Each structure stands twice: as C-alpha cells, then as structure tokens.
Amino acid sequence: xxxxxxxxxxxxxxxxxxxxxxxxxxxxxxxxxxxxxxxxxxxxxxxxxxxxxxxxxxxxxxxxxxxxxxxxxxxxxxxxxxxxxxxxx
Length: 89
Known about the structure:
mainly alpha
C-alpha cells in the first residue's frame, strides 16, 4: 500500500481526488492479501497434517489439522466481513 502512495507522491499533478480513488482500492487489496496469507497458512498446515499422517505421526497430524481448521475458519470469517464492509475493515 505504501509503495503506491509513494509512487503517487512523486507526481505533482496528482490531485486529492485521484488519491481518493486509489486509497479504497489499496485498502481492499491489503485486506485481500491478509486473507490470502491466512488461506496459504491453512493449506500449509493441511499438507503437513497429510504428510505427518502418512508417516504415522498422529500427534503432529492432529495438531496440524487443528491449526489448519482454525486458520481456515478465521480466514473465511475475515473474508466475509471484508466483503460485507467492502474493504473498510
């Protein structure tokens, strides 16, 4: 987000109206990135759980599955809240 603002600040002909257009887009992009990171970690823990269960490590598999489920639920909740509030969260 800050890279785009820095990029926009280099141009003197950028008006406050132009910035008003870009800021909501940048905030929405930031929120989507956060949700994508949560989904990525959920997938990583799910893969760890699958691999651990294949090798017979039941405790690690169960713990990784629990982390994956928690992260997936949190990511879905954040995605729904973000969609409802249109990126104002």
